[in-house]
Amino acid sequence: MDTSKANSGPVWRRYLTALGPGLVTGASDDDPSGIATYAQTGAQTGLGFAWTALFTFPLMAAVQEICDRTALATGKGLGELATTRFARRGRVVVGGLMVVLIVANALNIAADLVAVGAGMHLLHAGPSALWALLAGALITAVVLAGKFPLLAKVFKILAGTLLAYLIVAVISHPALSELARAVFIPHLTWSTTNVNLLIAVLGTTISPYLFFWQSAHRLEELREEREGGNRAVPLKERSTKDAQRKQRMSRADVFTGMAFSNLVMLAIIVSASATLHAHGQTSIGSAAEAAQALKPIAGQYSEILFAAGFIGSGMLAIPVLAGAGSVGMAGLLGKSWGFSRSPRKAPVFYGLVLVGTLGGTVLSLLHINPIQLLVISASLNGIAAAPFLLLVMLISRDTSIMGKQRNGRLAATLGWFTTAVMTLATIAYFVTL
Fold this sequence. Notes:
single chain, mainly alpha, Amino acid/polyamine transporter I, about 75% helix
């Protein structure tokens, strides 16, 4: 990345240039499993859960800003920082959680590959299984190339496919006054079904793999800067002006990405509410089923746009899912990592990535119910979410690691509140099984 270009030109151009890790992280959160969750929520409750898009935004934004800041402040990933912050016993616990995360991500990858195949089938492009296999093979080949600048550009393009859901929401003609009330005035009828839906929305929105990816993608970006010489230069080694600019633009990127992610979430809930819920169809098993159900209600273009959206989001989320856990584990083991490194220079990292992509591809071809995969994945992520949030908060408050970039009062308050919310959600999940 040429920072001389990034520092010049009009504000809007600098802003667009700065968009990257935050935008990709936010977009990857809306993967086909997330899309199915939001569509099911809208179909089952109408606009009853529209407020969750607003409620989760500051929580999601705060956590991802904290993860991003750890990378900026130290030039290291969360896995590497865990070895600094915790003694041997603590590192063993973190390692066990990383294994859980890698397994959960592999299951999620399998479900997302099935969704990509189903989406291509909806577009009359051929059998679902063939496209799931081709997608898995293509993604594996691309990530093995070790060309992160190209990969980053592809990620941005794929993130743009989620704009399809904003179009679908407009096509569905929601009642704007009713929508405004639903967003700004929370209303929740307490029942087992609604509690389960709320837990699903929280678990989908604040997922552990996002923490590691945000930090890793920022570091990959720093490595590409000319002055770094393939090394991530932390803020403390920069001039005051450059450090302030970098942190300001990085925050804008993170907040934009999280806002975009939650806007897409809201658009999917609105679309499902105005079409499926309004016509009495309250059960959706997958993103593909949601797309098919929209066709007779909102028209063929809605089905096509919905399918195109989850194909693009699946192709984006799969390498992110595979890379996130691999980055954390490789860093914890003290091994080289990153898509900017070649497989020869980072064999452990790429070996773990292959466990995710190839393992997910094999699972997608075994005719295992993708909904079952997602249920298992959600359970594993639920187990890991609160402990990983605790990990992030302990690292980011440590002055010996973060220096002047340690959490301020607002970041600490929102971060610990999010940790508490996800802890309660995990407990509630197991209570209501």
